[in-house]
Amino acid sequence: MNPPVEGETRTFERTFTVADVKQFAELSGDAQPRHIDANEDGRVMVQGLLTATMPTKLGGDNEVLARTMEIEFIRPVYTGEHITCRSTYDTVGERDDRYEFTSAVDCENEGGETVLRATIEGLIWKDA
Q1: Are the CB atoms for 118 and 55 separated by under 8 Å?
Q2: Four-residue CA torsion sign, 20, 39, 107, 26
Q3: DSSP codes, the chain
Q4: Which residues touch 9 (CB under 8 Å, ≥6 apart)?
Q5: Whole-structure pTM value
Q6: In angstroms, rounded to a whole number, what is the distance separating the alpha carbons of residues 33 and 53?
Q7: How far apart are CA 85 and CA 109, in angstroms?
Q8: Which Gene3D superfamilies does this one have (predicted)?
């Protein structure tokens, strides 16, 4: 575990596949036709909460325990789109046993359009 640093940005990139969306549909129960039936381009819409696994992955890399996650879904994501997610520590407070932080998250598609925006409050235990 690396201590969080104010202003530090971490990045994760991913391209969701039809198989990813179908597996998430089975797991979550969100199997709306838009997530199962391909459009004229052969793509399906990625579930919003599947897109939200991108900041979750970044938190998991640093053993974050999220307290709150305020997520705004700006535009749909489709399979085959390359998505880049950036999480920046806005504030970091150090306690005896933990770090408490807020971070700003922005996920963009390959055209530079924001698809998801979030604010996350959480903590990282020092002994983790």
Answers
A1: yes
A2: negative
A3: -PPP-TT-EEEEEEE--HHHHHHHHHHHS---HHHHS--TTS--BPPHHHHTHHHHHHHHHTT-EEEEEEEEE-S--BTT-EEEEEEEEEEEEE-SSEEEEEEEEEEE-TTS-EEEEEEEEEEEETT-
A4: 86, 87, 88, 89
A5: 0.90
A6: 21
A7: 9
A8: Hotdog Thioesterase
Cβ(50)–Cβ(81) below 8 Å? no
19-72, pLDDT tens digit by residue?
999 999 999 998 888 888 889 999 999 999 999 999 999 999 989 999 999 999
CB contact set of 19 (below 8 Å; sequence gap of 6+): none
CA separation for the pair 112, 52 (Å, rounded):
17
Domains plus CATH for the chain? 8-15+47-125 (3.10.129.10)
